[in-house]
Design a protein that fits this description.
The protein has strands spanning about 1-5, 10-15, 20-25, 30-40, 45-50, 55-60, 65-70, 75-80, 90-100, 105-110, 115-120. By secondary structure, it is mostly beta strands. It contains no helices and 11 strands.
C-alpha cells in the first residue's frame, strides 16, 4: 500500500514562514505529479501548487511570489515553502500524488492533512 504523510503545519503570525513536507512510502514504482491543496472552513478544497517528475511547477495566483513547491525524487518527498503568510492562508493543507505502483497501475493518493493557522 501507499501512504502520504504530511508534516510541518502549525501556528504562525502574519508575515511568517512555514515549510510543509509530504513523504510518500510503500509500494511505489514511480511518482508523477505531486501537489498541495488546501481547504479553509466552509470553503471548497483548492489547488495551491503542483510539480511534476521533471520539476515543472504550477502555483495558484493567490500564492505566487510567496510560496514555492519543490520535490526530492530520491526521497519521494514534496515540500511547500510558505513565506509572507497571511490570515487568509489559514486552512488544512493536503498533499496529493499520482503514484504508479507498477508499470501499468496508477492512482491518486491523499495525505491526512496538516493544519496551518496564520494569526493577524
Amino acid at each position: 500500500q501507499v501512504q502520504l504523510v504530511e508534516s510541518g503545519g502549525g501556528l504562525v503570525q502574519a508575515g511568517g514562514s512555514l515549510r510543509l513536507s509530504c513523504a510518500a512510502s510503500g509500494s511505489i514504482f514511480s511518482i508523477n505529479v505531486m501537489g498541495w491543496y488546501r481547504q479553509a472552513p466552509g470553503k471548497q478544497r483548492e489547488l495551491v501548487a503542483l510539480t511534476n517528475s521533471g520539476g515543472s511547477t504550477n502555483l495558484a495566483d493567490s500564492v505566487k511570489g510567496r510560496f514555492t513547491i519543490s520535490r526530492d525524487n530520491a526521497k519521494n518527498t514534496v515540500y511547500l515553502q510558505m513565506n509572507s503568510l497571511k490570515p487568509e492562508d489559514t486552512a488544512v493543507y493536503y498533499c496529493k500524488a499520482q503514484i504508479m505502483t507498477s508499470v501499468i497501475i496508477s492512482a491518486y493518493y491523499w495525505g491526512q492533512g496538516t493544519q496551518v493557522t496564520v494569526s493577524s
